[in-house]
Amino acid sequence: KEQLNKELSDFVARGIIYAIENKVDVISLSIGWPDSKDTAFFKAAIKKAIDQGIIVVAAAGNDSTKALLRPCSLEGVICVGSSGPDGAISHFSNYGSGVDIVAPGTNILSTYPEFLRSKRFRNEIGFEYLHGTSQATPLVAAAAAQMLAAGIDKSEIYSRLVTTATPLKSRLPIKIGSG
What we know:
34% helix; 4 helices; alpha/beta; disordered C terminus; globular
């Protein structure tokens, strides 16, 4: 199993190298694993992408913990958590100072493998409502791509994303007064 995880890391790294060679502007990674599953090749691919000015966006993980997954926790990667319709961080989303931004990740209409039976779409195949930071990540990547298409410089994308985001609402009730 350990070798399989390392092979996955290297497989993703090859995809990143392919993206670099094809001069993409944004890479969206709705994946994650603990740092023990990383390879030097994977870390080098991420670093090369960032060094070449590619915006790399990755999912924070769905363990409801401060422990962020790779590649989200790598330097220069925009780390995305999930928020719910109430504006608070989703109960499953990883959180903490390593999360740069959150985006909607609860009940997101998604394509779904046709060989799996959808729970919500009984008469249709290929769709399902999904939850996770993997659903939130492409929304942030799309916002970055849209800003680039509007002529905003790559060096401004991160700061514009985080400074214009709506502040999170607390999941905890706030007590007023000293009752």
